[in-house]
Write a structure and sequence with these properties.
Length: 74
């Protein structure tokens, strides 16, 4: 199985909490364009930032991923 980042889930949760990208960026100590890249799927946050996002958004970091079955070729 492969974990696939789902930036849309980050965006939905941020909006549920009424946060702007700038406010979320301040909470995890990054700039707003980086939050935009995470939400659009152009970039994936590193482990450190996943933890901070989870804390800031009151979610388990794994909730921002989907598991994809990867069939290994033999």
């Amino acid at each position: 199985m492969k974990a696939i980042w789902q930036g849309e889930r980050l965006k939905v949760r941020r909006k549920e909490l009424g946060l702007t990208m700038a406010e979320l960026a301040a909470r995890v100590d990054v700039d707003r364009p980086l939050v935009s890249m995470w939400e659009s799927g152009k970039s994936t946050p590193s482990g450190h930032f996943l933890v901070l996002l989870g804390i800031a958004l009151n979610k388990e970091p794994k909730e921002f991923y989907v598991l994809e079955e990867g069939g290994a070729q033999r």
